[in-house]
Every structure is written in structure tokens, then in C-alpha cells.
Amino acid sequence: MHATLLSILGLALLSALRAQDSVPVQTDFQQDKLTGRWYSIGLASNSNWFKEKKHLMKMCTTVISATADGNLEVTSTYPKGDQCEKRNSLYIKTEQPGRFSYTSPRWGSKHDIRVVETNYEEYALVATQISKSTGSSTMVLLYSRTKELSPERLERFTQFSREQGLMDEEILILPQT
């Protein structure tokens, strides 16, 4: 009985790892071109916090800057109630250009972040696999240099989110602020 259960759990873990490795990273990623101001246009996630807060979420501004050691400082400013809050994150570069890691000091969750595709001047599609002691979740973000994006880019975000196993009710185009 235990052997069967362990085999099933092992196969499930292997499938999850394979799915995570199948998430592409931008070919010839150029980190310096990703820096600057972005707007969060779309957010998709199967996490519990997203399901609970989805109805409150709005577009936020994110500024990405490179650190001296080649990592990324990511500062997001988002509306919360009648004021704005800032959240700073340090994305640590990995050996694969366009792939970063981040550990949340608040929640202890580990994030595997991949810049899936971008043309640097218009949009960026970013996928994150989040792992913590209570389980794992997937998040997909669509960034834009402006507050609006073409219907084709929005559709690509939706399509990619579905490819990551996310359901339509877990995909949100954020209202402008």
C-alpha cells in the first residue's frame, strides 16, 4: 500500500517538475531592455489569495531596475483603499538569462520567475511558479509600457495562462487606476 502511494506521489511530483521545465524563457533575453516602468495589465493565478482578493485588484505600476550584481530590483506600487502601497522584491538571476528566483521574506514562499516573451518596448509576459509548505501555485503576469494593450496581446496572455493549466475564472484583465 505504501509503495503504491509513494509511486503515485513520485509520478505526480515528476509531472509537476516537467510542466515547470516546459515553461519557456525569452530567447536571447536582454535584461537591460527589461528595465524601466511597466503597468500590470493582466494577472492570472490559481492561488487562494488571488481567489480571495481578485475582486479588489486593480492595475499597478512596476519599476524594474538592475542592481550592480546583475539582479533585478522590482518595485510595485498598487492602490489599496484610498492610498498607494509599495512592495519591493529582489529577483536573483540564475544561470539561465530571463529566469530569476525570489524568496518572500513575509511568507517564506519560493518563486521561480521566467520572462516568457517580450519585445521590451510594448509588453512582457512573465510566468511564476510559487512553492511553499502548504503547496504550490502558478501565476502569470502581463506587463505593458502603457495602460492599454492590443486585443492580440491580451488574447496571447489568456491563451498562455490556459496553457499553464489556469481556468478562465483565474484569469483577470486588471481595471485601470
From TrEMBL:
<comment type="subunit">
    <text>Monomer.</text>
</comment>
<protein>
    <recommendedName>
        <fullName>Prostaglandin-H2 D-isomerase</fullName>
        <ecNumber>5.3.99.2</ecNumber>
    </recommendedName>
</protein>
<dbReference type="GO" id="GO:0005794">
    <property type="term" value="C:Golgi apparatus"/>
</dbReference>
<keyword id="KW-0472">Membrane</keyword>
<dbReference type="GO" id="GO:0031965">
    <property type="term" value="C:nuclear membrane"/>
</dbReference>
<dbReference type="GO" id="GO:0043303">
    <property type="term" value="P:mast cell degranulation"/>
</dbReference>
<keyword id="KW-0413">Isomerase</keyword>
<feature type="domain" description="Lipocalin/cytosolic fatty-acid binding">
    <location>
        <begin position="35"/>
        <end position="177"/>
    </location>
</feature>
<keyword id="KW-0964">Secreted</keyword>
<keyword id="KW-0643">Prostaglandin biosynthesis</keyword>
<keyword id="KW-1015">Disulfide bond</keyword>
<dbReference type="GO" id="GO:0001516">
    <property type="term" value="P:prostaglandin biosynthetic process"/>
</dbReference>
<keyword id="KW-0467">Mast cell degranulation</keyword>
<dbReference type="GO" id="GO:0005791">
    <property type="term" value="C:rough endoplasmic reticulum"/>
</dbReference>
<dbReference type="GO" id="GO:0048471">
    <property type="term" value="C:perinuclear region of cytoplasm"/>
</dbReference>
<dbReference type="GO" id="GO:0036094">
    <property type="term" value="F:small molecule binding"/>
</dbReference>
<keyword id="KW-0276">Fatty acid metabolism</keyword>
<keyword id="KW-0256">Endoplasmic reticulum</keyword>
<keyword id="KW-0325">Glycoprotein</keyword>
<keyword id="KW-0333">Golgi apparatus</keyword>
<keyword id="KW-0963">Cytoplasm</keyword>
<dbReference type="GO" id="GO:0004667">
    <property type="term" value="F:prostaglandin-D synthase activity"/>
</dbReference>
<dbReference type="InterPro" id="IPR012674">
    <property type="entry name" value="Calycin"/>
</dbReference>
<keyword id="KW-0275">Fatty acid biosynthesis</keyword>
<dbReference type="InterPro" id="IPR000566">
    <property type="entry name" value="Lipocln_cytosolic_FA-bd_dom"/>
</dbReference>
<keyword id="KW-0644">Prostaglandin metabolism</keyword>
<dbReference type="InterPro" id="IPR022272">
    <property type="entry name" value="Lipocalin_CS"/>
</dbReference>
<keyword id="KW-0444">Lipid biosynthesis</keyword>
<dbReference type="InterPro" id="IPR002345">
    <property type="entry name" value="Lipocalin"/>
</dbReference>
<keyword id="KW-0443">Lipid metabolism</keyword>
<keyword id="KW-0813">Transport</keyword>
<keyword id="KW-0539">Nucleus</keyword>
<keyword id="KW-0732">Signal</keyword>
<comment type="similarity">
    <text>Belongs to the calycin superfamily. Lipocalin family.</text>
</comment>
<dbReference type="Pfam" id="PF00061">
    <property type="entry name" value="Lipocalin"/>
</dbReference>
<dbReference type="GO" id="GO:0005615">
    <property type="term" value="C:extracellular space"/>
</dbReference>
<feature type="signal peptide">
    <location>
        <begin position="1"/>
        <end position="19"/>
    </location>
</feature>
